[in-house]
Amino acid sequence: MPKAKGKNRRQKYSYNLNRKRLYRSARRRAAPRIACSHIRHAWDPHKSVAQNLAEMGLAEDPNKAVPIPKKLLGMEVESDGQQPGKKIVRKPYVVNEMELEASLPEKKSNTLSRDLIDYVRYMIQNHGENYKEMARDEKNYYQDTPKQIKRKINVYKNFYPEEYKDFIASLKPEKMEVQ
């Protein structure tokens, strides 16, 4: 197999490039990536990370914010009774908005594809509980084994329990008519 062109060519080193200055300026310019929109909107780029978080009432280091008591570590040390001075929170709305967002109930976004639902319904309708027959069916395009089909049916049962019960109930009168 031939080698790629230019692969063996030696890389030239640029002597005129000051790499220290490049690295330092890149580090200085890089702002922290903030995932939470509440924090992002309240962020002041002219202040340090510690100052921004202190203004919002958030902890920079969780180990310092909630220290482990010495008794749990096995050492009993008497404290002076002095508490560290409380920091002034200038932007309490950030913490309040985050708490409000966290208290909202989580929406179930898990759904099954329409193809999988149709596939499971077809298999149950034509074969009932016979998974070996289902595996031999011509609509079993992905050549699922009986256990894989059973697992898919169980997933459908767990995601849509009411719909599954209604579907099974609608199948029973059809079977009675056949007999």
UniProtKB/TrEMBL annotation:
Q: Does the keyword Nucleotide-binding apply?
A: no
Subcellular location per the Swiss-Prot or TrEMBL entry? Nucleus, Nucleolus
**GO annotation terms (biological process):** ribosomal large subunit biogenesis
Record bears the keyword Nucleus: yes
Q: Which GO terms describe its cellular component?
A: nucleolus
Principal subcellular localization: nucleus
Q: What is this protein called?
A: Nucleolar protein 16
